[in-house]
Amino acid sequence: MAVAHAIIYILLTSLAAAAASSKSTFGCYESIISFGDSMADTGNLLRLGSANNLPDSGNPPYGRTFFHHPTGRYSDGRLIVDFIAESLGLPMVQPYIGGADAAVNGRSFDKGVNLAVAGATALDVSFFEERGIKNTCTNVSLGTQMYWFKQFLATVPEGRKFLQRSLVLMGEIGGNDYNYPLMQGIISPRVIQSFGPTIVADIGSTIQELIELGAETILVPGNFPIGCIPYYLTQFKKSSTKKDYNSTTGCLNWLNNLSIYYNELLQKELTRIQKLHPHVHIIYADYYNVMMRFYLSPTQFGFTEDILRACCGGGGPYNYNDLVKCGKPGASCCNDPSIFTNWDGLHYTEAAYRLIAQDLLRGHYTIPPFNDICPSIATSSPSAQIYKY
Ligand SMILES: *[C@@H]1O[C@H](CO)[C@@H](O)[C@H](O)[C@H]1NC(C)=O
Ligand SMILES: *[C@@H]1O[C@H](CO)[C@@H](O)[C@H](O)[C@H]1NC(C)=O
Ligand SMILES: *[C@@H]1O[C@H](CO)[C@@H](O)[C@H](O)[C@H]1NC(C)=O
Predict the structure, then answer these.
(1) CATH of residue 194
(2) How many domains does the structure of the chain reveal?
(3) 50: in domain
(4) Ligand 3 pocket test, candidate residues 253, 260, 262, most atoms within 8 A of CB
(5) Is 209 left (phi over 0), alpha (psi -120 to 50) or beta?
(6) Is 35 helix (H, G, I), strand (E, B) or coil?
(7) What is the extent of the structural domain holding 321?
(8) Span 294-307, pLDDT tens digits
(9) N or C: which end of the chain has fewer CB within 10 A?
């Protein structure tokens, strides 16, 4: 009798376990909703463009390491969002533009949707136009992405439940709100810095709207140390003197300070929203410090090439040339992107994105630690399965 009970008990518990695990492979999320810019775009900008006006990410050598062809990702391979999906046992998150129709294009949004568009700002284009700043890449803002998302969600049966069971990746977004004005040079850095509260309020209100729609877990990355990227190091080389550079890293201190300032504002806003919605998990992802480690001790992470140089570009001290960008005729590409952090002057290599994603998922550089919210992630090794793109 006791044995029979034990067997029934084991049967019941394993059935319960099976039921729980069918929720998602590792029991945390059934899908991923991704907003952002080129750091997260898995093909939207490419699909928004016309055939005779492809973005650089539609040309080789973009995609060469992993996909072996350009996918619209601004890297040689996978992005952070791809590695997060893989570690959660989910397929790569499909770009929203072009739609999903399993019968027609073999794509599905059942496991998530990616609304991120390269070049997107958090604030609407009008904010920049009013100040004489152009978005040379796209007119898509976070507001546009949210509009698309609501249209999408309305088509999902039990949309609220779908969103509740999703991991929402809110960014990185906001970096371009600084990039366009900094590069166009018609507004002083001090005034550009003062955009911070407006950018952060915009991201904050989008997060609150998602919470009202049912979102329960939202990961919000801050900005990268932009003073370390070849794009800015090249742009500001002429106007900089020795004292402008960090003596340890060679990065531009004032630009990194801008990221630090912005990230502090963002974290304050997240803390404020968290207090209003105690049942929701709002997780800050510290992209600044996760990346800064590479600049402080590059070889420890396998980045044996000059850490401030881009792998793919048109030459110069940082291998970045605005006139000969990666993906354009005349640009050259390094042999081994895995020993570089920087891919094309602005974006990072798959090797860097992989390390960042691993650290975030293990709970380092996330506040609160991601593995407190999804403990099974820490024990599950990322699946080696490669999903059809
Ligand atoms: C963006 O540009 C496209 C194409 O020119 C246009 O159809 C669309 O209405 C614009 N969207 C916004 C938000 O301005
Ligand atoms: C130089 O960079 C290091 C590492 O990020 C930082 O701790 C330090 O404050 C920087 N120095 C200045 C003057 O900003
Ligand atoms: C950047 O911040 C550091 C640390 O707060 C400070 O020492 C340094 O003066 C700042 N540098 C610039 C150029 O703003």
Answers:
(1) 3.40.50.1110
(2) 1
(3) yes
(4) 253
(5) alpha
(6) strand
(7) 2-377
(8) 999 999 999 999 99
(9) N
